[in-house]
Amino acid sequence: MSTFTTRTAMPRRTFLRGVGATLALPLLDAMIPAMAAPAKGAAPVRRLAYLFMPMGADMPRWTPPGSGKLDELSFILSSLEPVKEHVSVITNLEVKNAYPGTHATSNAAFLSCARAKHTESNDYFLGTTVDQMAAQQIGRETQLPSLELAMDMMQTVGQCDNGYACVYQNNLSWSSPTTPLPAEAHPRLVFETLFGEGGSKADRQAALRKRASLLDFVKDDITRLNRQLGPMDREKVSHYLESVREVERRIQKAQAGVADNPLPDLDRPVGAPAAYADHARLMFDLQVLAFQGDITRISTFQLARETSNRTYPETGVSDPHHPLSHHGNDPEKIARMAKINRYHVSLFTQFLQKLRATPDGDGTLLDHTLLLYGSGMGNPNVHDHINLPILVAGGTVHGLKGGRHIRFEQPAPLANLHLTLLDKAGVRIEHFADSTGKVDGLFEPLSI
Amino acid sequence: MDLENLSREDVVQHSERWERVVRRLDARQMPPAKRKSRPTEGEYQSAINSLVATLDTAAAANLKPGRTETIRRLNRTEYQNAVRDLLALDIDATALLPADSASHGFDNVTVGTLSPTLLDRYISAAEKISRLAVGGVERAPGGDTIRIKPDITQEEQVEGLPFGTRGGALIPYNFPQNGEYEIQVRLTRDRNDEVEGLHESHELVVLLDKEQVQSFTVKPPRTGEGHQYVDAHLKFRLQAQAGPHQLGVTFLKNPSSVLETKRQPYLAHFNFHRHPRLSPAVYQVSITGPFEAKGPGNTPSREKIFTAQPKSPADEETCAKKIISNLLRHAWRRPITEEDAARLMAVYREERKEGAFDDGIQVASSAILVSREFLFRAEQEPDGLASGTPYKVSDVDLASRLSFFLWSSIPDEELLGLAERGELSKPDVLAKQTRRMLADERAQSLVSNFAGQWLHLRNLDSITPDGRLFPDFDDNLRQAMRQETEMLFSEILRGDKSILELLKTDHTWLNERLAKHYGVPHIYGTQFRRVALQPDEERGGLLRQASLLTVTSYATRTSPVIRGKWILENLIGTPPPPPLPNVPALDNGTVSESLPIRERLAAHRDKPACSGCHDFIDPPGFALENFDAIGRWRALEEGKPVDASGGLPDGSVFTGVSGLEVGLLKRPEIFVTTLTEKLLTFALGRGIEPNDGPALRQIVRNAKADNYRFSAIILGIVNSTPMRMRQTL
């Protein structure tokens, strides 16, 4: 095989039957409401979703007035109106370890709250991110411990920002201080990770039956070997047979899964849609499906990368995002940047609506998912990491109470919020990075 | 130690211990060089000769061929090659199976286990491979996405693509069926989401088997427009025939792309900050299809599999049996019984009930690919032998030993046929087959698989030198480094030269990128060629090659310790023991980091706990200090002249790489024994034990008469006791 390429998958077959187009859109909008009723009575599943928005926000246009009950929404958050009761705005969180203020550390510290080792080489060092803390505990119960998604088709290497290695800016999730987890932006590859070839229920059942019969052949084959061996090698063979039984269990579990699973017929998307909005919606849909099929309970999604020069024609703003974020306090520029911020939030709103429209357990997916949306930067004009734009949503079954604005008088560590959400998701740890406590107010009944 | 009063019985009784003594005496590591009174050369010789004579005589009377594990799984490389030879299908096993762990320096030694995850992967792999090989009808189109490594500079022609092009990739691709396929190309973006290097228009061309099938123009966005859509139009459909093809995606080289800069330009261009791309680069190529599939076509795989085609339904059983028996015999590397074929025929029939004839063959192929006699090598043991009894391995097992050694794959028809007829073990037949196999293209696995592991070349991919200190390093250079070493090894193998030429040659293999790295002028283009060297030039043998000098360095600096350990382990054959558990690290605050590495290590060798080993380890590494951490020659380090004085464990001292080479070639049998030992480890799939000493010595002795030619070593191994025999447990 050639040495200069990495083949990211050796997948096969499937696509919108009979459709020759390269866009598999709309993938799911039509399917989600039509899903079968979920099984009742099981223990509620707890999920965590982290959404990253790059380069802070215009905080005056982000922060809603007052505190306590979330009444009037701000300009940037206005799209949240229909789901307001599920969302809380948290004001005055900071992430000290992102200093000295850079784009690389804004991304790296968002979920780790750790200080990135200043290097552009392979000796990078950060901290285990909060999603991976959760994945290591609650991720064991699902096919994938966690799902890492991004919107950008790139994997730059070397230096990316002020002497920081590109991994800090490319990867939100780190499973250890030295192991960044690459995020996938290609919808087809994400789909295959989640669902293999997909297909209808019958297709999936048939595929599993074939695997099961191949496995039967292996079992018979290995059992025959046993007759010809001495005691030591026989022990080895009994280990092989244990492996066979384990794979057998996996296939049976998957077969049961297909039978009970509310997932619709699945068609693999072919490529990434050219338009940002379509691509982002597809990525959100894949997360909904992953949660719905209980393929994973943890996801991270980078809506765009720090320093992205992407333009968002949908917003009526033609300037690229990064230069606009260095607005130099020019009111015109700030206003245009705020439109981009608002646009990103509107995609989040759509995601929340989809989760709310999908039944799960005794309620909806939104009830069973804790979501954190925000940025590792506050004011991008000066690269600060105080007064971050942060939202928390969903999680009714975790005890989360939405529809409020929690405003800290003194800056509080973002790590406190991370710790709180972990706790509610059933992941018990004492401290996380520079945490000093928990954000109790999130879960108390509103007493105003 | 009193060697004179040593009795023959003592030596024979404790042969394992005395084999170790011989090894240390051979390397002149015992007694230590520090000792004031050391034996004379003559005393060494006579002590070794007398010990060796006793050991060898005893071994000849009481053969101890050793015992490779009974059940060994094919490793990932062997699996890939076996699929290639069984089904005429090139696959990338790294995308299908997890890596194997190595022990004794090779990844074909610890292969007894079968975890659930691995079994799961084998099942998935078998399904994919058999489907691709048979070219069965698919429910819907599939696809692959091929990404190009991000640290490849794409400013120059890629080998295999036409002159006048630059960058991109030549992708070997197996189209599953005749039909239409969509090709989509995306360009590399910088950290700001902009297509890097897009300053003017560029022509992108797509070639199928060297024929241009499409071209596109890529333009910078108009002012005020982002880069989102500049590569959105890079997609089209093409008609392709099923089977293996070469898909080329590349740019036409713009005549104007001459770099104007006041400074010496970097050679690497892949990072916006450090050394930006000058022109756009290909990021990924997606291939989706087939749309409107028109059948499995006539592929090499189908030709190999379908040795019979049913003319009527009544024919099917006979044909299926013929096909399955043929596949089975090669997959299992042995004659097939009626019962064997019947088991697979049952699998075929079950599928045939629901599907077509081809479907039945496809599922039977899957079953063969997960069968234990394909996945595992299990050698037959004769019945009724007492424990520890040596016996000759059967001809059929010998055929597999031979093919997995020389090809990392299954035996071919000729080899298997000879083995089945019981002719393979005849000395002249065996020698002829060995020579035939060495001359075969498949013996290239000795370069990529054996040498890649022996010399640690495989580690090169995971090495990334510090970008600030070595801004010229990119994957192009990394691959060129690897290729130089592979070409030298290949030259020795193919030209049947003396293996001593690995250590010292009067020429080397270079392309433009590597020549620039070495400062060798007048070498142009991406293709490698043989370059004669002047006697005083800095390049030549293995120890002067950037590949090895880089894998034995840290990201920021050289490491005489790693280099020294590498030399002891891989060239001298006396690896140092691992560090003691409670030895403090070098930089525990007591040694200033600003000192040159030599002085820092000296501070460390003053500690008695360290010096015992580091007195051996560091000096050979010091001799290479004229080469920096990416193998460039340096006369100065931090403004001071480099001190390259070094030594070898035998007490010899010298300066620089030339001295080291002279020291190693002074008694060439040390190096020859080490390489032979590595080859034997690889051939047997087990660690070499002291009891293998007599066999090793015999191979080296016989090869000496033939000037240590590569084939002499290989033939020696093939004829050796550990290769031809095995002992019961």
Structure characterization notes:
The complex is a heterodimer of chains A (448) and B (729). With 448 residues, chain A is of the alpha/beta class. Chain A has 11 helices and 15 strands. An 8-stranded mixed beta sheet of chain A has the order 3-15-4-14-13-2-10-5, with helices on both faces. Chain A has a two-stranded antiparallel sheet with strand order 6-7. In chain A, a hairpin with a 2-residue loop joins strand 8 (173-176) and strand 9. In chain B, helix 5 runs antiparallel to helix 9, helix 7 (316-332) packs parallel to helix 9 and helix 22 crosses helix 23. Chain B has a 4-stranded antiparallel beta sheet with strand order 2-9-4-7, with no helix packed on it. Chain B has 25 helices and 18 strands. The mean pLDDT of chain B is 91. Chain B is of the alpha+beta class and 729 residues long. The radius of gyration of chain B is 29 Å and the shape is flat.
Characteristics of this structure?
heterodimer; A: about 450 residues; alpha/beta; Alkaline Phosphatase, subunit A; Helix Hairpins; eight-stranded mixed β-sheet; two-stranded antiparallel sheet; 15 strands; about 35% helix; about 15% strand; globular; disordered N terminus; B: about 725 residues; alpha+beta; Jelly Rolls; four-stranded antiparallel β-sheet; 18 strands; about 40% helix; flat
